[in-house]
Amino acid sequence: MLNNKVSNNYRILKGKWSAHPFLFFIFYFSFFIPLSSCNIYRFKDVSIPAEVKTIRINYIENKARFVNPQLSPQLTDKLRQKINNQTRLTLIQGDEADYDIRCEITGYDVTTSGISQQQASANRLIVTVNVSFKNKLDEKKNFDAPVSRNFDFSANLSLDQAQAQLTPTIIQNIVDEIFNRIFSNW
User: What distance in Å separates the CA atoms of residue 180 and residue 2, rounded to the nearest whole number?
Assistant: First the structure.
């Protein structure tokens, strides 16, 4: 009896969709496609006023208690590359830039993030960068704000080993955070 009901329901559905394949595509594209992209956030288009033409990105200084010597030059370079590649702004070194960005690494701290059998099983590296944004054309848009990201690593690794593994991820994530803070008005 159950198989007969399932079989009848299948024939009804098959009949409806085969008679109107166009309905199937409308249903599929209006329901499943939007659901598949629910958690994707992309910032390809940046909203910059037309009168803004230039930007200066100062060297990112490292003022944290612990200094990773690779971090400042790599962050500075990657931030300049990202802004150059994803905006129409011209990078300049002079004081006459429409946007002036100053950043400094203010925190580079390691804490324990997981304990197993009364021993540290995971550590967390917390990187904090203070961003100072000056808009010379609209001073109401100026801000100073910290940007911070956490990076977990195994407690079996030394800090030097963890840095070797995490530095590319740290650079990418911090640059993205700074970029979004400046251009996405978060």
Answer: 56
Mean pLDDT (whole number) for 130-145: 96
Residue in the block written with tokens 């702004």: 89
User: Which pair of structure tokens corresponds to residue 170?
Assistant: 């740290």
What stretches of the chain adopt beta strand conformation (E)?
A: 54-57, 61-62, 90-91, 99-116, 119-135, 143-154
* C-alpha torsion angle, residues 50, 53, 59, 62 (rounded to 10): -10
> Which amino acid is located at 173 in the chain?
N
Kindly write down the DSSP assignment for every residue of 125-141, as one continuous string. EEEEEEEEEEETT-GGG
Q: Please provide the CATH number assigned to the domain covering 54-183.
A: 3.30.160.150
Domain ranges of the chain: 2-36, 54-183
pLDDT tens digit string along 5-28?
Answer: 545 554 544 555 555 555 444 544
